[in-house]
Design brief:
By secondary structure, the chain is mostly beta strands. The chain folds into two domains: about 110 residues, no CATH class; about 525 residues, Beta Barrel (Maltoporin, Chain A), CATH 2.40.170. The protein is about 5% helix and about 55% strand. The chain is globular and about 75 Å long. This is TonB-dependent siderophore receptor.
């Protein structure tokens, strides 16, 4: 049902923020005498920085004149949703100077659920259309998450073009693009190594997931050159809406969600949203079980028409028993051909993870269309585990592990992020440009303690319960603090009507320190070698609109990683730098319903630690910053609605990585766990009311070329190429309820989804499984 929003000073922010979340529409009551929508300088051009053509000369105090003005600004709303304009009967909308009554106008923006996002914030803090970003950019929308029944961040990122998810265990995964790990941002606030060995929140609290591929150092600071993921939380709507989900699937997989939003006072200046989800499930591996629940709440309050305060809090609890860290290999390097249900871990192994997060932001929108925003995130996570894992591969003759290790650990981490920025347009040399200036701080403190029990020798494969649980004392512990901060800026300069120059840069100060804390009295903090002082990270891009539908672009992007190794003179080697050159084309076709991208990239990872050949026999190893890796390839992506009723997303990635300079691996492939060819497709078709009313059918495929295991085992045999097909059917029972069934791995293909080491991380892909879902909304 439509919602009602009071339009204040920044229409694009309102539309992005929650006018019509999900499949809900948005109606806006506009006082057209005071609204900035009626100002002649209100931006409607691409990028919200170019002045519009002259407003038609109309009588502003007639219903016809007002309608014309509202229809004139309608294309700006249509960038995000699609709008219809209606006139309602006379109402108290304010009195003009001559005392005549002004009619109230209703602008109804019906949300257009689909797979194509017309704007994202991952590349510039403020919403930018993909054609305005001279880099590869993908967005996973809420609609696609629902259609494919995606519930974890790993599920979501598996759908993104060019992204590879490598399983570590049942609770967390490694996420890579262009051969390197991805960084993380939460609503635009950077989080150093935020996707590494950290449990993520359930997707129920997110509106969309944005991925920028390639170095993102200007907004992120230090990090790997693979790219960055921006997770965008849901925000309150300005009218009441309620939705819920009940689902049941294979391996006793049960899930429920409730999402309620709406105004909390009469003038809708205070709005709230509450999301609750719970899941209890087993897996295709024997004995593995997870129970998980999430509560997410958020409030927005308009302190004044141009200033909005937002608060949110989240808590998630995960309990997993007998989690699988994958299968081992045979000691000769061969993959083990066994039942996919095989779990080599004892049933007393368990992980407990509790994650809490609070965030706050305040945004002010100035009359000159400048925006100032401050955002603060705090996330804490506690985990404790009892673990057991193979200390060797499986002897192919005896079918045994030489030993099985046992341990117990606890860990805590606290992460704080602060981001401040000022963004807006300015005029120079007769043209309109855009400038963003900001500063952010990112701090992470991690603490852990652990202990181990004697290894159990000669354990037979397939009999994990012969490994007994042990009482274990903590014998070691440590704390580490990593922090970085720095100013950043981005300029979008209009050089000519079709030509835009994008320049950016930041300076970063990076520090680490650590100490031992257990079991003895904590030691003094020691400063780590990994550090940087005002390290400058540049960025440059150029956009050329060659037609109404197509933009060509080129860009240079940079990022760095401090290193700890030392030279012979005792100084620390220079940071690694990831430098990428990218050329591409982006297009919006069929009146903006279909987006296409083609990109070619070359990435050089330089200054890698390289053993100094002048000191080959030294007891203390010395290094030079002279190693180098190259990652290059191309990507193509198609997203949107090419036909009425059809939504699709398709992407292909060709990736080649190699050691350019290395003592022993020169010329060989670098990222051997990421496929060199990758194709992803998902499409969903809604039949018309004239053919099969209420029905929709969907399907897709993920195809990958082969991958290999860790290079430490030279005899490893990798997984060959494979393709996995999924399908979905749904029926709309009435205007409120829809029932659907999803089948993953339709042809029950048996394959290794990832290939790891000789002792673990070799994961079979999921066998065929089914999920039945009932969704309702009001």
């Amino acid at each position: 049902m439509p919602c009602v929003c009071a339009v204040r000073d920044d229409l694009p922010r309102l539309v992005m923020a929650g006018c019509g979340k999900g499949s809900h529409g948005c109606a806006m009551t506009i006082d057209y005498h005071s609204s900035p929508l009626m100002r002649a300088d209100f931006p409607v051009a691409r990028g919200s920085v170019m002045p519009p053509p002259p407003v038609p000369s109309v009588d502003p105090d007639t219903r016809t004149g007002s309608m014309r003005k509202l229809l004139y600004v309608t294309p700006l709303l249509a960038v995000f949703h699609g709008v219809t304009v209606q006139a309602r009967g006379p109402a108290d909308a304010g009195e003009p100077a001559d005392g005549r009554e002004v009619p109230e106008l209703l602008v109804t923006a019906e949300a257009m659920p689909g797979y194509k996002a017309d704007a994202a914030t991952v590349a510039g803090k403020v919403p930018l259309a993909p054609r305005e970003v001279p880099n590869s950019l993908s967005v996973l929308t809420r609609q696609q998450m629902d259609d494919q029944e995606l519930v974890t961040m790993s599920d979501a990122l598996r759908q993104i073009t060019g992204v590879t998810v490598i399983a570590n265990d049942t609770t967390n995964d490694q996420v890579m693009a262009r051969g390197y790990s991805l960084g993380a941002m939460y609503d635009g606030v950077p989080s150093y190594a935020g996707l590494t060995a950290v449990q993520q929140f359930d997707l129920a609290m997110y509106e969309r997931v944005e991925v920028l591929r390639g170095p993102a150092g200007v907004l992120q600071g230090s990090g790997e050159p693979g790219g960055v993921v921006n997770m965008v939380r849901k925000r309150p709507g300005a009218a009441f809406a309620l939705s819920g989900t009940l689902a049941a699937g294979s391996w006793n997989n049960y899930r429920s969600e409730v999402d309620v939003t709406g105004p909390l006072n009469a003038d809708r200046s205070l709005r709230g949203r509450l999301v609750v989800s719970g899941q209890d499930r087993e897996y295709f591996q024997d004995r593995t079980h997870t129970g998980k629940w999430l509560v997410f709440g958020t409030l927005e309050y308009d302190l004044q028409p141009a200033t909005t305060l937002a608060l949110s809090a989240s808590i998630q609890n995960d309990n997993t028993t007998a989690p699988s860290s994958g299968l081992p290999l045979y000691t000769d390097g061969r993959l083990i051909n066994t039942d996919r249900s095989t779990n080599v871990y004892p049933d007393w192994v368990n992980y407990h993870i509790r994650t809490e997060e609070v965030s706050a932001s305040i945004e002010h929108r100035f009359d000159n269309r400048w925006v100032a925003r401050a955002a603060l995130n705090h996330r804490s996570q506690h985990s404790d585990s009892k673990d057991a894992w193979p200390g060797s591969g499986v002897d192919p003759l005896t079918g045994t592990f030489s030993r099985f290790n046992r341990s117990q650990s606890e860990s805590d981490y606290d992460r704080d992020g602060l981001d401040l920025y000022l963004n807006g347009p300015f005029a120079l040399l007769g043209r309109s440009h855009n400038l963003m200036l900001g500063f952010n701080v990112d701090r992470r403190k991690s603490a852990s303690k652990s202990g181990s029990a004697p290894a159990v020798p000669n354990v037979l494969f397939g009999q994990p319960d012969s490994v007994p649980e042990a009482s274990i004392r903590y014998t070691s512990g440590s704390e580490t603090v990593t922090s970085q901060h720095g100013p950043y800026g981005q300029l979008r300069a209009s050089l000519a009507d079709p030509l835009t120059l994008v320049l950016g840069g930041r300076t970063t100060t990076f520090r680490t320190r650590s100490r031992n804390v257990s079991p003895s009295v904590p030691t003094d903090w020691s400063t780590g070698n990994a550090r940087a002082d005002n390290h400058f990270t540049p960025y440059g891009g150029l956009l050329l609109d060659v037609s109404r539908d197509v933009t060509l672009y080129g860009s240079y992007a940079d990022i760095f990683v401090p290193q700890t190794q030392k030279k012979a003179d005792g100084s620390v080697i220079d940071p690694r730098t990831g430098r990428q050159y990218e050329l591409g084309a982006k297009g919006d076709f069929l009146d903006g319903r279909l987006g296409a991208t083609l990109a070619l990239f070359t990435l050089r990872d330089r200054n890698r630690a390289y053993r100094d050949p002048d000191y080959p026999a030294s007891s203390t190893p010395y290094y030079l910053a002279s190693g180098e890796i190259e990652s290059r390839g191309w990507e193509a992506e198609l997203t949107g609605s090419p036909l009425r009723g059809l939504d699709l997303t398709a992407g292909y990635t060709r990736l080649m990585t190699r050691y350019v300079k290395d003592r022993s691996l020169e010329g060989k492939a670098y990222s051997i766990q990421t496929p060199s060819h990758q194709f992803k497709l998902w499409a969903d078709y809604r039949f018309s009311e004239d053919s099969l009313p209420g029905f929709s059918l969907g399907g897709g495929v993920q195809a990958n070329s082969g991958s290999e295991s860790s290079r430490g085992n030279r005899a490893v045999q990798g997984q060959g190429g494979y393709a996995v097909f999924n399908a979905r059917a749904a029926f709309r029972l009435d205007r409120h309820f829809t029932v659907g069934v999803l089948v993953n791995n339709v042809f029950d293909r048996k394959y290794y989804a990832s290939v790891g080491t000789s002792t673990a991380y070799n994961f079979y892909g999921e066998p065929r499984n089914v999920m039945l879902t009932l969704r309702g909304s009001y």
